[in-house]
Amino acid sequence: MTKAMNRKIAIDPVTRVEGHGKVTLHLDEHNRVKEARFHIVEFRGFESFVKGHPYWEAPLLVQRLCGICPVSHHLAAGKAVDQIVGVDPENLPPTATKIRRLLHYAQVFQSHATHFFYLASPDLLFGVDAPAEKRNIMEVAVANRELALKGIQMRKFGQELIQAIAGKKVHGVSVTPGGVHKGLSKEERYFFLDGKTIPSVYTMIEWSLEMVQFLKDYRREHLPWMDEFASFPSNHLGLVSEGGAHELYDGKLRVVGAEGTRVINDQADSTYQNILSEATEPWTYLKFPYLKSLGREKGWSRVGPLARLNVCDFIPTPLAEKERQLFKALTSDKPNNHSMHTHIARMIEVLHCAELMKEVLEDETLDQGELVRQGEMRNVGIGVIEAPRGTLIHHYEVDDNGMITRCNLIVSTTHNNEAMNRAVRWVAEKVLDGKPEITEGLLNQVETAIRTFDPCLSCATHALGQMPLKVSLFDSEERLLHEKTRG
Amino acid sequence: MKKQEASKTLLIGIGNSGREDDGLGWAFVEQVEQSNFFDGDCQYRFQLNLEDAELISHYEQVIFVDAHQGELAAGFLFSNCEANAGTGFSTHQLLPESALYLCQQLYEKVPQAWVMAIQGHQWQLKEGLSQEAQNNLGNALAWFRTMTGKLSKTFA
């Protein structure tokens, strides 16, 4: 390998993400990064095999896309089939809306906790230079027992609430077309309020505040790395509700540019096809969504916690709003394009969800009122929610017998595809440029960059989950020069 | 929302009954739960996860039951399980010994633990156990029933 030539590096599999990914780095004759690609190499095809099934099966079938965020798919599909039975979100029974929102907040809470404590915290606690065998949750348990204990309890709280509403922690059922199957009894609510059996929702708020503070302190202690690592300008896409409020369950689509320009101004989510298009590349199953108005090159957006904090004008709960204002001050009220700050944004959303869960759990009417409504049958249903990882779109068309004839799913990780590729390129250019081979440092930093997006590759490609990382290095003639696997 | 202190022993079935013989762990626990010879608590998991470290910290004995892909002379194997950190973690898999290790690190408790491995033969996307797996399940259950009878004070 002494001869100068164009080269390609592949990282396969990528670890501590949900699913299976691979990275290839293509170098030119001077060992400089010519191209960086984050490949998704699995395929499941949920959009095809739900065809021919009755519409009411969709919320049950599609949640099998994922064992980590099945609730998000259950709810997005549920919102879509509501419309098929003629019920728009504003016409859903109030109790059903509260139950669905509570389920969603519990899901976002537990998913963010899972990501931060189980997947990302080793990067932060031990640093990207630590050996791979050190950078895992087992070592976190030894090094920071209190953090690990709280992480486990916070995830457990969300999962217990999901189970109380949907019957099971994973792949439970709450949604029925036009409503929900059950409300929440006083006894069930008090389980989460009284702190007798598990730490209460009030404790969850306290711990969430502590975690936000932990990350703010961490950033201050790790400057400029936290501000610079894998940072790049992008558009930001997310839902907002009335007055520009941060929204997770039902709202309008808003996009802001890297400098704060309003690119898409609060459009109905049902118009997503007028706003978004998807490009494909031959080297990955993951598509590249982009804004039609800006085109493929400039129209890609980030989604998820960072994007949601960038698109909203305020968070409608007091503690999270206070933290949002402090967060916005870091970038002088401009959109925040620092990828590592996604971890802070994610924890502000954990705090927000804890506050929201408290509000709903204190509501005495969760076991009262009608739970299901029906209207005039329609042939199209589009459900959009903010899943933990970002904007999630479910679109179904049915024939007059209610059988699904078309399905289009754009999942959160798909929106982040271009951004993840840019993050990998950022690392490759900073760490690899001019060097002839893959180092442990490169592997670690590529993983860390990808992990900020909390990609769920299983959902995005609809593949069974394994979480390995493979990096391959190729020359200009596409010859494999070096390869490292971790998993 | 069951109180976890009710029993001394926890039986955890691990697997996926939608993947043929991968459902052996659940089938074993279902049949034990329906019988009257075991008075402990039962749980079902697609896979173990970190919060299960907290769950098992409430018990004195834990038995993990899972399907096994390799050859087992009797079609099943009941063996001791010792705490071990292991080297990896994914949200899709946590080994029983790693769950015990976390329990030890976080809750300063290590329940006595065993793994009941039952040999499976078919793993496709389909419900129902193969005939060979059903035979192994029957043998494992019979052995477990006899053993719990002998050690009734242990597995309470």
Distance between the termini of chain A: 27 Å
The separation of the N and C termini of chain B measures 20 Å
Helix content of chain A: 40-55%
Low-confidence stretches of chain B: 1-5
Number of strands of chain B: 5
Would you tell me the overall average pLDDT of chain B?
87
Radius of gyration based on Cα positions of chain A: 22 Å
Structural class of chain A: alpha+beta
Shape, principal axes of CA atoms of chain A:
globular
Keywords (chain B): Hydrolase, Protease
GO molecular function, one term (chain B): peptidase activity
Protein name (chain B): Hydrogenase maturation protease
InterPro entries (chain B): Pept_HybD-like_dom_sf, Peptidase_A31
Overview in brief:
The complex is a heterodimer of chains A (487) and B (156). With 487 residues, chain A is of the alpha+beta class.
Strand and helix map with partners:
The complex is a heterodimer of chains A (487) and B (156).
Chain A: E1 7-13, E2 21-27, E3 33-40, H1 46-49, H2 58-61, H3 70-84, H4 94-126, H5 137-143, H6 145-166, E4 175-176, E5 179-180, H7 186-193, H8 201-221, H9 225-228, E6 235-241, E7 245-246, E8 252-256, E9 262-268, H10 272-275, E10 276-281, E11 284-291, H11 295-298, E12 301-302, H12 305-311, H13 318-329, H14 342-361, E13 380-387, E14 390-398, E15 404-410, H15 412-415, H16 417-432, H17 440-451, H18 457-461, E16 469-475, E17 480-486
Parallel strand pairs in A: 1-17, 2-16, 6-12
Antiparallel strand pairs in A: 1-2, 1-16, 2-3, 4-5, 6-7, 6-8, 8-9, 10-11, 13-14, 14-15, 16-17
Helix pairs in contact in A: 4-6, 4-14, 5-6, 8-14, 13-14, 16-17
Chain B: E1 9-14, H1 24-34, E2 41-45, H2 51-56, E3 61-68, E4 76-80, H3 96-107, E5 112-119, H4 131-150
Parallel strand pairs in B: 1-2, 1-3, 3-5
Antiparallel strand pairs in B: 4-5
